[in-house]
Design brief:
With 158 residues, this protein is an alpha+beta fold. It folds into two domains: 47 residues, no CATH class; 111 residues, 2-Layer Sandwich (Beta-Lactamase). The chain has six helices and seven strands; from the N terminus they run ββααββααααβββ. The strands form two sheets. A five-stranded antiparallel beta sheet has the order 4-3-7-6-5, with helices on both faces. β5 and β6 form a beta hairpin. It is globular, with a radius of gyration of 16 Å.
Length: 158
């Protein structure tokens, strides 16, 4: 994380390494996620959370870990639905991720929605994602509500 990263929550200021144990209040976290600050990727790196997803399950921000895992630049991931980012076979059809009948049964969409609605943290849930190439890839997902967003951790694929 860059030394210049500074985050303020209430009266407390967090900088650099102090961000690793950071817990922001909901108001400050929402302000941070909606600010468009360039160091949000650093913030997600420090928390070991590769992506922040919005209400519609669009990637708001991603970090270098997710970029490396998906072999994409982080600016290419932001704005994609999570299915498009993971190159789900059904997100590549004529409709966007979440808009086809099969998406109603998508475990990942349901997992993220459960975290958003209930606030429950779901840890290392294994799931098979059908890839555009015709192959399937297995990931583990951890979801955690953070203000209006859901932080998503993606585990090693096989």
């Amino acid at each position: 994380m860059g030394r210049s990263t500074r985050i303020r929550c209430g009266r407390q200021m967090y900088t650099g390494e102090g961000l690793q144990a950071l817990e922001l209040c909901e108001k400050c976290l929402n302000a941070l996620l909606s600010s468009g600050r360039e160091d949000i990727s650093d913030f997600l790196d420090a928390l070991d959370k590769p992506a922040a997803l919005g209400r519609d399950q669009t990637v708001l921000f991603s970090n270098i870990r997710m970029s490396r895992m998906l072999s994409k630049f982080d600016h290419d991931i932001a704005g994609l639905s999570i299915g498009e980012a993971l190159e789900c076979r059904f997100a590549a059809s004529e409709r966007r991720c979440g808009e086809s009948a099969i998406c109603m049964h998508c475990g990942l969409r349901r997992l993220v929605e459960l975290a958003r609605i209930s606030g429950e943290k779901i840890a290392e849930f294994p799931m098979i994602i059908p890839h555009r190439s015709g192959e399937s890839q297995t990931y583990t997902f951890t979801t955690e509500k953070a203000g209006e967003a859901v932080l998503l951790t993606i585990g090693a694929q096989s």
